Amino acid sequence: MPVGPGTFGELKRPTGIGVKRVLIVDDSHAIQRLLGHALESDPRLRVVGIAKDAYDAREQIRNLEPDVVVLDVEMPRMSGLDFLERIMRLRPMPVVMFSSVTQNGSDAAIRALALGAVDCVAKPNMGITRETLGDLADRVFAAANAGVLKPAPLPTESTRKLARDAVPSGRPPRHAILIGSSTGGVAAVEIVLRGLPADCPPVVVAQHMPESYLESFAIRLNGLLPQVVQLAEHGMPLKSGHIYLSPGGHAHTGVNFEKGRFSTVAIDAPKRNGHCPSVDVLFQSAVGFADRVVATILTGLGKDGAEGMKQLRSAGAYCIGQDEASCVVYGMPRAAADLDALDEQLPLNGIADAIVSAADQRAGKRIAG
């Protein structure tokens, strides 16, 4: 149903310039009201409608033209994921998913982000109250200002099998690829990784997301890509044809290079720029052997990774940033560009080729030298 000003309390302000229109889609009346109160308490947001299921939401999207949709994963008649897929195919727009923190909820959250959802908010374990919703309004406002990334087509099973069979083993890699991303990063990281060859140098990824989601992300990527994908652990030797995701939690992930071999390092430190894993921590860990690194900073809110990338570039790494037009949120790459930390900025679909080219050129120089 459409709602008017004051529905969720005494706030009675008009929708003005810059105020973002929100549609809530959830079958629970209690959750509808809690979400409504949490969002309407922010003067930048206005809840213009509430839908009880996907069919109701479809009509309200058409009639109300919201700037952003907050969509529950579990709903009657049509699941939130199925509805999200239809939205992205027929009328792409910013969507924030609302998901449980169970394993099934984590799997659903990763699938939603891969389908093109801008963000996924975990339902608090201790129950949903106005207090436990935390930074929901900030995240919904950021999503309303974000772009929408269309997911890439999935590789076929035969392509995955042939490519995985081609991955070599036992040869110490000469270079490492480091990737940092945040909002919009699940789909962006997938697109970049799909463009890398099966025998690519080892890749270490710091993606901002709840710890409970990262295992699901690794499982998803492992099913899509020819490379072996796993969560990083302290002291893991880095191998060609392998991708390592920083697991987050209470430790950041860094990279070490000693006696001709790369390995992962767990770095026990407070959140950096509000995040664990932090992109800055990952990038700064590699400054001592920067000439062996190709670093990429992708879509994301804030500036995490910008300072680390500046240090990497100054020390000899090749640094690539995603361009504004292809970013869901042009925050982290913009911050890196503002610090003159990038060798080039590219659209998302050109980044994988640039990574491969930079790694090949560095390998050639090292052999020639």
From TrEMBL:
A Gene Ontology molecular function term of the record: protein-glutamate methylesterase activity
Domain Response regulatory: 21-138
Record-annotated active site: S182, H208, D304
Residue numbers carrying 4-aspartylphosphate: D72
Record localization: Cytoplasm
Gene3D superfamilies xrefs: 3.40.50.2300, Methylesterase CheB, C-terminal domain
Annotated SUPFAM superfamilies: CheY-like, Methylesterase CheB, C-terminal domain
Post-translational modification: Phosphorylated by CheA. Phosphorylation of the N-terminal regulatory domain activates the methylesterase activity.
Catalytic activity field: L-glutaminyl-[protein] + H2O = L-glutamyl-[protein] + NH4(+); [protein]-L-glutamate 5-O-methyl ester + H2O = L-glutamyl-[protein] + methanol + H(+)
Family: Belongs to the CheB family.
Its job: Involved in chemotaxis. Part of a chemotaxis signal transduction system that modulates chemotaxis in response to various stimuli. Catalyzes the demethylation of specific methylglutamate residues introduced into the chemoreceptors (methyl-accepting chemotaxis proteins or MCP) by CheR. Also mediates the irreversible deamidation of specific glutamine residues to glutamic acid.
NCBIfam families with a match to the protein in the record: PRK00742.1
Name under which the protein is recorded: Protein-glutamate methylesterase/protein-glutamine glutaminase
Organism, as annotated: Pseudooceanicola pacificus
Lineage per the UniProt record: Bacteria, Pseudomonadati, Pseudomonadota, Alphaproteobacteria, Rhodobacterales
